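Glutamyl-tRNA synthetase
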Amino acid sequence: MSDKSKYELALSKIDAAHSDDPNRITLPKRHPTINTNAPTPDPDPETTTIPYELHYAQKMTYYLTRLDPLSTSTDLLRLAIRAQHLRRWEIPRSSYPPTKPGYHAWRAELQRRQAALAEQICRESGYTAQEAGRVGALVRKEGLRKGPDRETQMLEDVACLVFLDDQLDGFGEGLGDEEKMVGILRKSWGKMSEEGRREALTIEMSEKGRELVKRALEG
């Protein structure tokens, strides 16, 4: 099987898994992550409704192209980026205690499981154990704090950009504590590369979101 065939098969399997997400989001068809050539049953010619995790995955790929306009990224990185949040809805936050240790345990389990599922899909699509293992390591963000790993840093940048673009307002409302939100943004900024930070400053945000980011950067 050719590299292109393996990649396309793995990508289709990942997107099929994302498409099982029962949570839906309605978006304008002119949204940059929407494939306007794809058939849609939606009667509204201006909007389309898709599974949220498929939307999230498409956003991840979109920001990868923003950071890598020349398309130099490896297929393994592209798959790892697309596989973020793989079947995440199956382990809701409410399945763990509403405490800081509970949150960290939940995040650790999500990361472990998502990496394992991504590796399995890659093996089923014809990738070697070593190649699939690399995808899993990227999903787990291994090496992010141990030394320079361009691909792991790229994935972290992309995840932070999607958070700022797609989740900032909702997360802030759910948290209900502006100071905590500012602290979270400050930590996210610290994880990003200079390229990621430059891209972050181009994102259109709500007035509230931009105010929180400004406070985080001033601290």
